[in-house]
Amino acid sequence: MKTQLKIASLFAAVLLAANSLFAHGGVELGPNGGRILEFSKDETMHGEVTAKDGKFQIALLDKDMKPVALGDQVLTVTAGDRDKPTKVEVTKADGKFVVPMQKGEAYWVIFQFKASAKAKPVTARLHYNAEICEECKAAEWLCKCAPEGETKEKKK
Predict the structure, then answer these.
(1) Are 35 and 141 in contact (CB under 8 A)?
(2) In terms of CB atoms within 10 Å, which of 9, 74, 116, 148 comes out highest?
(3) Is residue 12's pLDDT more than 80?
(4) Computed over its alpha carbons, how large is the radius of gyration of the chain?
């Protein structure tokens, strides 16, 4: 009986985690309308991901969501199919990291950010989904709607 209870508890925990991971909407958007990713362990560095001309542009923001100048920071990106991920070339232009988008309507993008070449990397994940949300008319990866099960009043 205890084993069944442990298995049921584990199954419930996995379902809850998966639901929050793949929930519709509710992502944090930055000052430029891009998706905010956490690039630090203490919320002092963020990356704002936007898309333009078939490329992701990643701007660095501080804890107050103010722009941070690019210096010796390093960003490594892996994207595409989980079974065969591709390491993507990252360049710097106009004060942002620039990463070519992959072919496809939905795929994972894994960002590994280092504040300097010798710093320990911080990993952030983004599920890119180009489908359009019926409610807010934004791409799902930028959906502003409240997560499923949460009302708009709760979100405010």
Answers:
(1) yes
(2) 74
(3) no
(4) 17
By residue count, the chain amounts to 156
Write down the pTM of the prediction. Answer: 0.77
d(CA 79, CA 141): 15
Report all structural domains of the chain as residue ranges with CATH numbers, in order of start: 28-145 (2.60.40)
Indicate left, alpha or beta for 54 from its phi (over 0: left) and psi (-120 to 50: alpha): left
Q: How many CB atoms lie within 10 A of CB 131?
A: 11
Instruction: Please count the CA atoms within 13 angstroms of the CA of 147 that sit on its side-chain side.
Output: 9
What is the Cα–Cα distance from 23 to 71, expressed in whole angstroms? 35
Q: Are 47 and 123 in contact (CB under 8 A)?
A: no
Q: Give the residue carrying structure tokens 């078939």.
A: 54
Give the model's pLDDT for residue 81: 83
pLDDT of residue 1: 53
